[in-house]
From TrEMBL:
<dbReference type="InterPro" id="IPR013154">
    <property type="entry name" value="ADH-like_N"/>
</dbReference>
<keyword id="KW-0521">NADP</keyword>
<dbReference type="GO" id="GO:0008270">
    <property type="term" value="F:zinc ion binding"/>
</dbReference>
<dbReference type="GO" id="GO:0070402">
    <property type="term" value="F:NADPH binding"/>
</dbReference>
<dbReference type="Pfam" id="PF00107">
    <property type="entry name" value="ADH_zinc_N"/>
</dbReference>
<feature type="domain" description="Enoyl reductase (ER)">
    <location>
        <begin position="13"/>
        <end position="323"/>
    </location>
</feature>
<dbReference type="InterPro" id="IPR002364">
    <property type="entry name" value="Quin_OxRdtase/zeta-crystal_CS"/>
</dbReference>
<dbReference type="GO" id="GO:0035925">
    <property type="term" value="F:mRNA 3'-UTR AU-rich region binding"/>
</dbReference>
<dbReference type="Pfam" id="PF08240">
    <property type="entry name" value="ADH_N"/>
</dbReference>
<dbReference type="InterPro" id="IPR036291">
    <property type="entry name" value="NAD(P)-bd_dom_sf"/>
</dbReference>
<dbReference type="GO" id="GO:0005829">
    <property type="term" value="C:cytosol"/>
</dbReference>
<keyword id="KW-0560">Oxidoreductase</keyword>
<dbReference type="GO" id="GO:0003960">
    <property type="term" value="F:quinone reductase (NADPH) activity"/>
</dbReference>
<dbReference type="InterPro" id="IPR047618">
    <property type="entry name" value="QOR-like"/>
</dbReference>
<protein>
    <submittedName>
        <fullName>Quinone oxidoreductase</fullName>
    </submittedName>
</protein>
<dbReference type="InterPro" id="IPR011032">
    <property type="entry name" value="GroES-like_sf"/>
</dbReference>
<dbReference type="InterPro" id="IPR020843">
    <property type="entry name" value="ER"/>
</dbReference>
Length: 325
């Protein structure tokens, strides 16, 4: 058994349910590796899980993303070995810990040129951005897109990647983040809660609308997102930061222009080791080449994760936030 510390919750609720506790880990089993974590990514989905919107079995250690060093491996494990620098960005939950067990075949080897904080900051958001702009709706020169929360963790990566792929980008941000969005490459920036998003998008596109909307905000932007689309455009709803979107009748999609609607999730784009490695390697390449620049703008001690959750929920963060064990 290995003793370590983790942030656990025994009930769903506010940030106060996040408790620093000592835990014991068994020796790694088949297809398991023991990871000493050096950096942990913070993501909005963990707020959903903490509150019970996306309930997981209790007691629970949150966290989907991290980087660290392999300390031990279970019987028969060959894909990683002790001493390897690795990262991960999918379930099972449990990243809010100094050490953890994790499926060995879901670990990604980290390039020497990529530091641990950056790796922990980009794997979940970066692989999400990649599938959005390269697979869900593959962007090409000539496409015009609307990207909500353009200054967020996924948004900062996706906007830069979309520009690299040749798209014209209209981004939405909260007040005070306009200059940041422009610095990322947004061609036009709209302010959520102030601008009439759909009307402004139509004005910016000569009345046509955009080819695709990428929306992680959910309920608050749903109607405007549909109304901003060009005929036969695609609505990509991949998050619920403002709450779940309402039910939609298929005839609504017809009346608004024969629209396409999809609700993707990262897990279905990295469901094999081959897809996982290909996605991660593509992400590492675009970051290390400088085409997508990463901004780790906040760090918190792991013990202070409650404060990190509050800052994220109140949209006081920009770019990536990393927890340090």
């Amino acid at each position: 058994m290995t003793k370590t510390h983790a942030i656990r919750l025994h009930a769903f609720g506010g940030p106060e349910v996040l408790q620093w506790e000592e835990i014991e880990l068994p020796a790694p089993g088949p297809n398991e590796a023991l990871i000493r974590q050096t950096a942990i990514g913070l993501n909005f989905i963990e707020i959903y899980q903490r509150t019970g919107l996306y309930p997981l079995p209790l007691p629970l250690v949150l966290g989907q993303e991290g980087a660290g060093v392999v300390e031990a491996v279970g019987p028969g494990v060959t894909v990683v070995k002790p001493g390897d620098r690795v990262g991960y960005a999918s379930g099972p939950s449990g990243a809010y810990a100094e050490k953890r067990l994790y499926p060995a075949d879901r670990l990604v080897p980290l390039p020497d040129a990529l530091d641990d904080k950056t790796a922990a900051a980009i794997l979940l958001g970066g692989m999400t951005a990649r599938y959005l702009v390269k697979e869900t709706f593959p962007l090409k020169p000539g496409h015009t897109i609307l990207f909500h929360a353009a200054a967020g963790g996924v948004g900062q990566i996706a906007v830069q990647w979309a520009k690299h792929l040749g798209a014209t980008v209209i981004g939405t941000v909260s007040a005070g983040k306009v200059d940041l969005a422009k610095s990322l490459g947004c061609d036009h920036v709209l302010v959520s809660g102030q601008d009439d998003i759909a009307a402004q998008v139509k004005a910016l596109t000569g009345g046509r609308g955009v080819d695709v909307v990428y929306d992680s905000v959910g309920k608050d932007t749903w109607d405007a997102s549909l109304d901003a689309l060009a005929p036969r455009g695609m609505m990509v709803t991949y998050g619920n930061a403002s709450g779940p979107v309402p039910a939609v009748a298929p005839l609504t999609l017809a009346s608004k222009g024969s629209l396409f609607l999809t609700r993707p999730t990262l897990g279905h784009y990295i469901d094999t080791r081959e897809r996982l490695l290909a996605n991660a390697e593509d992400l590492f390449d675009v970051v290390l080449s400088g085409k997508v620049k990463i901004h780790v703008n906040q760090t918190f001690a792991l013990k202070d994760v409650a404060q990190a959750h509050i800052a994220l929920a109140e949209r006081r963060t920009t770019g990536a936030t990393v927890l340090l064990p």
